[in-house]
């Protein structure tokens, strides 16, 4: 196949490609960013290692405690139209009414100050404690989502990441209400093996005072009739030692380092079990910082790196809605 | 959606009336077909069809016949009558015809359902009646409740009962309300005992079950049944639904993911169901859609977003609810100023209220409404367009079936969705940015088979942009598929690229006349645009040349390639754009030496049009007398003249291998063909040979040969010879003077 080459064009034209998108509308800018994104198949090849940042220190540990040690299902969310932080009370009332209309009796909705939503069961029995049991929690989040914010006009509020804990039927009702009210769109956010490897590397790279969990990888082998799962657990300090041996650039993680890190694990495994893990699919990564499943489920364990984890998840969510 | 285009939409429609799009809408589409205020009564068949007088009379007769038939069934069989069977057959036929054509009104269904289950007639008749219980729009809940009451009387046979349950399952979505039916839950549940009914009752219960229906005694009963009958998929389905509602009640483990629980009950009515849905999908909000709206989210639904992909049209729900609860006076006044979407029926109404239209709460819903498509096409409100963009991008991504493994069962739905989008694009005569972005992401993963026709149509609606920017994202991926796929795929790709070229040309040709438009999305020079178009044409030229080689000069493929160049050769005259690009030699010579007459004829026509365009351009240059950046280089003229010389040399002057195609005489000697000089002229050219023979058989004079050819429909040849061959004693090619004066 000979390579394509355009002969000198017939009319002598004076414009260059970059002339095309000057003074573009927001829509044009969006398309531009999609084009850029599609041209590089890989996401940016280097990222910062999560640090315990200033921002992190300002966060009250009590306030974010409810985020930790729970399994969250991830969703990406397009910008909310005409959403206002000053109307949270009103939204709470409307959402409540909506849920009642959906015949889920005996539930109450609380929209917290930080725009997290709780569904609380109003227990009829007096013996139960007054508080009511939290049945469902969901929260919206955007950490360092600058690339998206750039192209969004003032009528929209960008909260690209939504995390839910509780029955999916509740997520469905609440999601539906948001979609109808703010013309946004929820999609489940799956994490592919590529991004799981990144998580594994970044979270292994985090400095920990003490480790609360082993570093564990789960691979899935697609074979019939039943799929085969291969679990590989490593002592977190060994994992860190391995990381330190492949890590070159201070403070940053690069694509080569991620690949090298995973390759080392693969070859180690192959030496012992004669199985090529690179031919299987990585489905779960757990570390002391957090654990993530390819289905889009995440559990954050370490308060210190919360912001870092959320920043990466926000990035993935933005990638999905771009 | 570019703001620049919006203003000119009306012209766009007129201009493109020659376009090949099958979805082309006429202005009459502005009139919304249905009036929602009386949509309850609309169920009389045929009313929502804007038909002519003649057809109307037909409908009237049909309706009378139907009324008679229904009356007949209501009275019951007349025992004494002699032609009983004949009359019965006639009336049955009437009912069946109307039902399958337009559906029956809910009152008619009510009556006939009663008859079918009451056992007045025989089993065969009951079956036929049940099979044609197809609603025009909806079925009333009362009819169903009445029908169920007949089941208790024991007048109908087992097979009728089975059919009834299958019907109920198939039509479930068209029943207007379901509260009463849900009250019969216990009755249905008891029917599970009947082995024949069990699968269908299970399916009905599956659709009907609410959380409050799940009771411990029912769970026990189901488990008993399961123990008795073994692991039946329908029982499992119901059990898993129960487990979903009340996990505490069911401790047995159920298979996690089972795709098909129920035999397809509705297959008897598959086409009818589609027709009813089509009828119900009218552009204005109608009761059925509202009922089916996202409000009643069903458990285990694949996507909890809504039942249909495209949201239901609703005015802003937030403002509405606020208004309902605590409406202050000022709120009330504000609201009275705005025009609710539900009342929007016609284009004039849209024009009158365009300043105060209440927008839908979910912008995606405009896709089904032609009036609102007009609206979003002409508003300059960025948020409106952005909302639509976000919704469409995400929905495409979510629905796209080749993104997810094992998602192919939803293929039909995705295809329909793409069709809706393409219809909207054709209606607006412009592509959506969301679709372009979607193509960037999905094309590299596309197998070239799935939704091929829709996908290629999306390609042809890519908004005009810089070719070199789009090429690596789109066309390079498309080329890979192009080269590795069948000839039919190649032809479809060429076809859609031809449409893409046409859409770009139309866009640009309007753009030039409306030049002083501020806020243009493409702040670009005409030269830049022409450059982009010319790159597209060269790219298709490259694809075509390679494809010809791969498919060993296939005639069928060549037709599609020449179709593309029929567009290309007329750009200057048809679109008034300063661009002439000739075809590559690989295409020209393949066509010239083709064995197919129609190919050669098409080539002649294209050459004729090239000539017209180039002479027109030349004339304009002479008139303007000034140097313009768009004067074609002498190279284009030379290239054309070169082709022309070859062609006339072959077809007319019998000097084929001199000026045009040069082949060393020595090589020609070696071929051993004695009369090679004549062998490609109009008489001996392989593609004309059959004409020459049949001409000779008619024994006419040679001087009439050309007239004979023309009379055989070779219009292209006629035009070519008339314009390009100078009739004199020494025939020669009539080239265009290529000495560029500038």
UniProtKB/TrEMBL annotation, chain B:
Source organism, top-level taxon: Eukaryota
Record has Nucleus as a keyword: yes
Keyword Transmembrane helix assigned: no
Segments for region (Disordered): 1-60
InterPro entries hit by this protein: CENP-I
Biased composition (Polar residues): 10-28, 35-50
Coarse class of the protein's main subcellular location: nucleus
This protein's UniProt keywords: Centromere, Chromosome, Nucleus
Subcellular location: Chromosome, Centromere; Nucleus
GO CC terms of this entry: kinetochore; nuclear body; nucleoplasm
Family, as annotated: Belongs to the CENP-I/CTF3 family.
Protein's recorded name: Centromere protein I
Protein encoded by which gene: CENPI
């Amino acid at each position: 196949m000979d390579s394509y080459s355009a002969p000198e064009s017939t009319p002598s034209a004076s414009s260059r490609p970059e002339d095309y998108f000057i003074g573009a509308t927001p829509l044009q800018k969006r398309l531009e960013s999609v084009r850029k994104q599609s041209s590089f198949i890989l996401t940016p090849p280097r990222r910062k290692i999560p640090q315990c940042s200033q921002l992190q220190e300002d966060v009250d540990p009590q306030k974010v405690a409810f985020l930790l040690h729970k399994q969250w299902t991830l969703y990406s969310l397009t910008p909310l139209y005409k959403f206002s932080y000053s109307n949270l009370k009103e939204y709470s009332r409307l959402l409540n009414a909506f849920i009642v209309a959906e015949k889920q009796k005996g539930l109450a909705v609380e929209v917290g100050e930080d725009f997290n939503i709780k569904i609380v069961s109003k227990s009829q029995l007096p013996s139960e404690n007054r508080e009511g049991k939290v049945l469902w929690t969901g929260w919206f989040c955007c950490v360092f989502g600058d690339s998206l914010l750039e192209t969004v006009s003032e009528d929209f509020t960008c909260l690209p990441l939504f995390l839910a804990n509780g029955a999916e039927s509740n997520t469905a009702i609440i999601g539906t209400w948001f979609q109808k009210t703010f013309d946004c769109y929820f999609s489940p956010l799956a994490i592919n093996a590529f991004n799981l490897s990144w998580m594994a590397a970044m979270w292994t790279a985090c400095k920990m005072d003490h480790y609360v969990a082993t570093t564990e990888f789960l691979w899935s082998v697609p074979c019939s009739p039943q799929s085969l799962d291969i679990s590989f657990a490593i002592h977190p300090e060994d994992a860190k030692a391995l990381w330190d041996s492949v890590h070159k650039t201070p403070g940053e993680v690069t694509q080569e380092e991620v690949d090298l890190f995973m390759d080392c694990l693969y070859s180690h495994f192959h030496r012992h079990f004669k199985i090529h893990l690179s031919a299987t699919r990585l489905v779960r990564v757990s570390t002391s910082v957090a654990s993530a499943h390819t289905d889009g489920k995440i559990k954050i364990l370490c308060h210190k790196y919360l912001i870092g984890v959320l920043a990466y998840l926000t990035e993935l969510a933005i990638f999905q809605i771009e | 959606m570019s703001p620049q285009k919006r203003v000119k939409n009306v012209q766009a429609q007129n201009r493109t009336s020659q376009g090949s799009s099958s979805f082309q809408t006429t202005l009459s589409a502005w009139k919304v077909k249905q009036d929602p205020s009386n949509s309850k009564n609309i169920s009389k068949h045929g009313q929502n069809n804007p038909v002519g007088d003649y057809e109307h009379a037909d409908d009237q007769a049909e309706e009378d016949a139907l009324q008679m038939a229904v009356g007949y069934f209501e009275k019951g069989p007349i025992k004494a009558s002699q032609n009983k069977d004949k009359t019965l057959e006639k009336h049955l036929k009437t009912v069946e015809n109307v039902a399958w054509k337009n559906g029956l009104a809910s009152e008619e269904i009510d009556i006939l359902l009663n008859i079918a289950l009451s056992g007045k007639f025989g089993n065969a008749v009951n079956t036929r009646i049940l099979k044609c219980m197809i609603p025009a729009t909806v079925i009333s809940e009362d009819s169903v409740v009445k029908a169920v009451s007949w089941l208790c009387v024991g007048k109908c046979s087992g097979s009728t009962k089975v059919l009834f349950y299958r019907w109920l399952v198939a039509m479930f979505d068209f029943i207007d309300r379901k509260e009463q039916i849900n009250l019969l839950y216990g009755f249905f549940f008891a029917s599970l005992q009947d082995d024949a009914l069990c699968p269908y009752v299970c399916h009905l219960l599956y659709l009907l079950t609410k959380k409050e229906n799940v009771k411990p005694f029912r769970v026990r009963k189901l488990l008993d049944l399961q123990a008795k009958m073994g692991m039946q998929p329908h029982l499992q389905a119901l059990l898993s639904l129960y487990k979903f509602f009340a996990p505490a009640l069911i401790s047995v483990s159920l298979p996690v993911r089972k795709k098909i629980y129920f035999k397809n009950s509705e297959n008897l009515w598959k086409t009818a169901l589609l027709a009813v849905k089509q009828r119900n999908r009218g552009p204005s909000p109608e009761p059925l859609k509202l009922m089916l709206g996202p409000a009643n989210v069903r458990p285990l639904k694949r996507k909890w977003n809504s039942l249909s992909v495209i949201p239901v049209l609703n005015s802003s729900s937030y403002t509405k609810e606020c208004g309902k609860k605590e409406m202050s006076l000022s709120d009330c006044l504000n609201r009275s100023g705005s025009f609710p979407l539900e009342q929007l029926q016609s284009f004039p109404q849209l024009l009158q209220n365009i300043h105060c239209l209440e927008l839908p709460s979910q912008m995606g819903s405009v896709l089904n409404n032609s009036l609102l498509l007009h609206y979003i096409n002409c508003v300059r409100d960025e948020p409106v367009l952005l909302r639509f963009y976000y919704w469409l991008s995400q929905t495409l991504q979510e629905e796209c079936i080749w993104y997810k493994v094992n998602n192919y069962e939803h293929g039909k739905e995705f295809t329909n969705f793409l069709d809706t989008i393409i219809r909207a694009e054709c209606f607006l005569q412009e592509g959506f940015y969301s679709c372009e972005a979607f193509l960037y992401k999905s094309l590299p993963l596309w197998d070239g088979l799935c939704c091929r026709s829709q996908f290629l149509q999306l390609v042809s609606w890519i908004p005009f942009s810089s070719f070199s920017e789009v090429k690596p994202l789109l066309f390079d991926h498309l080329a890979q598929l192009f080269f590795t796929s069948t000839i039919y795929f190649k032809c479809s790709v060429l076809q859609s690229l031809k449409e893409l070229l046409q859409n770009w040309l139309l866009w640009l040709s309007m753009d030039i006349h409306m030049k002083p438009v501020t806020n243009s999305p493409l702040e670009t020079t005409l030269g830049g645009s022409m450059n982009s178009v010319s790159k597209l044409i060269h790219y298709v030229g490259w694809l075509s040349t390679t494809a010809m080689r791969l498919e060993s000069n296939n005639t069928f493929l060549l037709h599609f390639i020449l179709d593309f160049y029929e567009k290309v050769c007329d750009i200057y005259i048809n679109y008034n754009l300063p661009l002439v690009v000739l075809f590559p030699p690989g295409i020209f010579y393949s066509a010239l030496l083709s064995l197919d007459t129609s190919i050669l004829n098409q080539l002649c026509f294209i050459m004729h049009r090239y000539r017209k365009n180039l002479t027109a351009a030349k004339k304009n240059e002479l008139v303007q007398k000034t140097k313009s950046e768009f004067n074609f280089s002498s190279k284009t003229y030379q290239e054309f003249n070169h082709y022309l010389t070859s062609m006339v040399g072959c077809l007319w002057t019998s000097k084929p291998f001199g000026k045009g195609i040069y082949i060393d005489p020595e090589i020609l000697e070696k071929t051993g063909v004695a009369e090679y000089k004549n062998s490609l002229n109009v008489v001996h050219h392989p593609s004309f040979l059959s004409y020459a023979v049949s001409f000779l058989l008619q024994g006419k004079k040679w001087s009439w040969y050309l007239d004979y050819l023309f009379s055989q429909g070779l219009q292209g040849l006629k035009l070519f010879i008339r314009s390009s061959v100078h009739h004199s004693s020494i025939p020669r090619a009539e080239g265009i003077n290529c000495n560029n004066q500038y």
